[in-house]
Design brief:
This protein is mainly alpha-helical. Helices cover about 80% and strands about 0% of the residues. Helix 2 (about 20-50) packs antiparallel against helix 3 (about 55-85). The longest helix is centred in the C-terminal third of the chain and has 32 residues, at about 55-85. The relative contact order is 0.13.
């Protein structure tokens, strides 16, 4: 997966006509993209652990997945309200 990067996200928000919170939105979107990539990687590892019946490694992977999902949730909860406001979307 190729990550766009914060600079291009800032350009994206300007193209969408945003004038507020562009650096903050860009940072959170960059983090969301990175955490989503991590989630997909960890799901693949967990699947592999399961196929090998490697309980110990599966548990370690599940812990890592949980932490990554918590980070993703934090960024999404911070990112969505200002995005919804600027797009005039009711939550």
């Amino acid at each position: 997966m190729t990550m766009i990067g914060r600079g291009l996200w800032e350009s994206t928000f300007r193209t969408l006509g945003f004038s507020e919170e562009i650096p903050l939105l860009s940072m959170h979107l960059d983090e969301i993209e990175e955490e989503m990539e991590n989630v997909l990687d960890l799901l693949a590892v967990l699947r592999s652990d399961t196929q090998r019946a490697d309980t110990e490694h599966a548990q370690e992977t599940a812990v890592s997945l949980t932490i990554t999902l918590e980070h993703l949730l934090h960024h999404m909860q911070t990112f969505l309200p200002p995005l919804q406001k600027q797009l005039d979307i009711e939550a």
